[in-house]
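User: tokens in, sequence out, please.
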């Protein structure tokens, strides 16, 4: 599921040659990197889809802080500010933009709820394009 994120980062890297590749790859996954400790501490949660056994692809992920619009903006700005310290303003802006691109790509690809506010559960604002091309069962990210 990360191939699109890493592909976009690689494309940005071709234009932003002074940005370290490892920082670009970390930036594109940053929302998920921050999600893991929040999940482990119970701040963000996983909920089985009603009527399922809760296995892979059968979970509703409540990532209200890392993958909401407000959370993505805050994490993008913070990442960009920290990156600007050693590498300068231009690299900080590029990396902050790459962090935010994660949210934009998720919005375009993952169906069901894309939280633009905390505890969004049922609205469907993602286009679900990933779902249209997936040959097996549906995969609920949000």
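Assistant: Sequence out:
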């Amino acid at each position: 599921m990360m191939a699109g994120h890493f592909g976009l980062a690689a494309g940005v890297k071709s234009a932003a040659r002074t940005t370290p590749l490892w920082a670009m790859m970390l930036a594109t996954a940053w929302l998920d990197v921050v999600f893991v400790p929040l999940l482990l501490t119970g701040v963000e949660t996983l909920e089985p889809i009603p009527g399922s056994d809760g296995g892979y692809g059968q979970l509703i992920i409540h990532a209200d802080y890392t993958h909401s619009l407000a959370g993505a903006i805050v994490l993008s700005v913070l990442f960009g500010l920290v990156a600007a310290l050693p590498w300068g303003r231009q690299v900080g802006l590029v990396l902050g933009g790459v962090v935010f691109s994660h949210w934009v790509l998720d919005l375009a690809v993952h169906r069901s709820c894309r939280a633009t506010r905390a505890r969004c559960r049922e609205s469907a604002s993602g286009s679900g394009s990933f779902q249209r091309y997936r040959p097996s069962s549906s995969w609920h990210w949000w």
